Amino acid sequence: MDEKYIKLIAEKLGIREIQVKNTAFLFSQGATVPFISRYRKEQTGTLNEVQVSQIKDEIKKYEELEKRKTSILESIESQGKLTEELKQKINDCISMTDLEDLYLPYKQKRKTRAMVAKEKGLEPLANIILLQQNGDSEKVALKYLNDKVENIEEALQGARDIIAEAINENVETRNRMRNLYKREAVIFSKVVKDKVQEAQKFKDYFDYSEKLSRIPSHRLLALMRGQNEGFLKITVKPEDENALYIIEKQFVKGNGKNANQIKLAAEDSYKRLLQPSMETEFSNLAKEKADEEAINVFTENLKNLLLASPLGKKRILALDPGFRTGCKLVCLDEQGNLLHNETIYPHSGMKEAFEAMKKITTLVEQYKSDCIAIGNGTASRETERFVKKIRFDKDINVYIVSESGASIYSASEVAREEFPNYDITVRGAVSIGRRLLDPLAELVKIDPKSIGVGQYQHDVNQTKLKESLDEVVESCVNQVGVNLNTASKHLLTYVSGLGPTLAQNIVNFRKENGAFSSRDQLKKVPRMGEKAFEQCAGFLRIEGAENPLDNSAVHPEKYYIVNKMAKDLGCDVKQLISDKEVRKKIDINKYVDEKTGLPTLTDIMKELEKPGRDPRGEFKAPEFEQNVEKITDLKEGMELNGVVTNVTNFGAFVDLGVHVSGLIHISQFGGTRQKPVNPANVLKINQAVRVKVLSVDVDRNRIGLSLIKN
């Protein structure tokens, strides 16, 4: 990678150039973000995953810049207009904006008014007027009348068209205009005539204005949604007088007739060319910034959702509740395998309720279920109340589980592949149970956009959104680690270095050869080359493996160090892991070599202390108020337990167990309108909270809340 780009990235991210250079090299060798940040700390200078990912994004940006330079140089050269000076300027560009400004005069475009004027021979007249020497522009224009130019006004108009285009294509003018837009641009919105009734959901923006530099991302995206749906007309610009003053100050010299012609050309240039161009540019920049903020909100929410604590290896009876159609019931083993399914009708009369109670009791005993999971959709609280009345012969915990996106999963190709002989109701119930067992393993099967976290996810750049969400899923999967012998193909797909083909090959290998007994066996999987093995091995776990390191985050390439530690202490690796006193005798400085430094050795010691430890923490179930099951049970002033289900820039949504999430508006977090508190800095998805009910609107299904601080 070009040294100038390495320097720019280092300066932007506040890190050393050698860190960028080494990380860029690792990417060029096919390494992934999780692998680099976890297993190449010596090369990167212990950059974290966020920093490594930022370097990746910057590299991509400059690669796109270089591709664009090549395309532009070829275009200008084909026109016979590429000088050495212009070529140097293009090669020296470090931003796409500067590059496009340089290319603007040479860009192939539809025939413009300036082009027509030049064809009429009016370019010399435009140049004379631009000089603004004493003289009468109308008299000079007489010399340029011909069979294509009938009168003086037509000649002067053509000259002004040429000058207007020159002003628009002037690099300095465009940069001055950008500075003005950065400082002073205002976004205006008006309702489209004849759409007032249809556009009621956007009524707050029927006659709205706000400084572009201050508008929050969620408000900008709402405005743009209104425009895209044909209800609002949006304009972005500063005061016209300020823009014209900047142009006239640059081009108008004096007060003569020529100067007046330039003033007219300047006004035309701004209103017809510069203003629309700048409006598009700054609207796009604002949209990109809003997209980035919205995507960041989404990715942070998704990360917290995926890293929710698992219940662990328990046998689960899961219920997808319903009234008229009954509750779909499934029994799962510790790995989430389906053992039994049927439908019960606890809400269809006394007889059916008794039968349902009897059935649940029998199945819990028959399949040795440890707990019961109930989806949080229709009839969830009623079903929870029903189940809690049952007297079991052992303690059976009952959990309410979010079923957001479960219907998407149950109708997906992934679900059909897993359960080809079952309908979507069975698949949905299985998904609810598995979410309790291991949220990460189940949620990776669902398109993140369908999980219901984030804000305006359908309005942002979909390509960037998908890339960001995929990166989050990959990060979470590799952070937790994956059981090589039980992971689904879909979960394996996100492991560093694998992908769909190798994931399927691993599943096929398991079916044909039985469970993996060592990481080394991975090398026998078809198409598992050295690079893929290097990237994935450290993130795959084998429970009960002969070598305990195979169930840890220690990479196989570093096993030799652990073996040497054990040998030096006169014990085996198992004892090294199990005996804290033995580990205390290790001086890691003795094991530094040309391949391994202190950062990696420190990680190895942490892993030996708790090999294969799940970083997601201990599971804690939400506890809702027993007598509050629907929105009509709520009263202003009530204080309730809740669980955060979504965090946005305008507030946080909280599940109270009434099928409608309440909103803690951003105004409830403190701060000011100019400097509000970001809800994401206060609350996280799945966080248990205590809230106070501020308002209840049953007709609109809206609940206003405030946060009760501990």
Protein traits:
single chain; 5-stranded mixed sheet; 29 helices; 48% helix; 12% strand
Indicate the topology:
Elements: H1 3-13, H2 17-28, H3 33-39, H4 41-44, H5 49-78, H6 84-92, H7 96-103, H8 113-119, H9 123-131, H10 137-142, H11 152-168, H12 171-184, E1 186-191, E2 207-211, H13 217-228, E3 232-237, H14 240-251, H15 257-306, E4 316-320, E5 327-332, E6 338-344, H16 350-366, E7 371-375, H17 380-388, E8 397-401, H18 406-410, H19 413-418, H20 424-437, H21 439-443, H22 462-480, E9 482-483, H23 489-493, H24 500-513, H25 530-536, E10 540-541, H26 559-568, H27 573-578, H28 580-583, H29 598-609, E11 639-648, E12 651-655, E13 662-665, E14 688-697, E15 702-707
Parallel strand pairs: 4-7, 7-8, 9-10, 13-15
Antiparallel strand pairs: 1-2, 1-3, 4-5, 5-6, 11-12, 11-14, 12-13, 14-15
Helix pairs in contact: 1-2, 2-5, 3-5, 8-11, 9-11, 11-15, 12-14, 13-15, 14-15, 15-22
Short characterization:
The chain is of the alpha/beta class. The model has no long low-confidence stretch (mean pLDDT 92).
Evaluate the radius of gyration: 33 Å
DSSP summary, beta strand count = 15
Q: Biggest sheet, in brief?
A: 5 strands, mixed
- Look at the structure and give the mean pLDDT: 92
Task: Describe the strand arrangement of the main beta sheet, using strand numbers.
Answer: 6-5-4-7-8
Low-confidence spans: none
Distance between the termini: 51 Å
Give the amount of beta strand, in percent. Answer: 5-15%
Shape: globular
Tell me the number of helical segments per DSSP (H or I, 4 or more residues long): 29
Alpha-beta content class: alpha/beta
Helix content: 40-55%
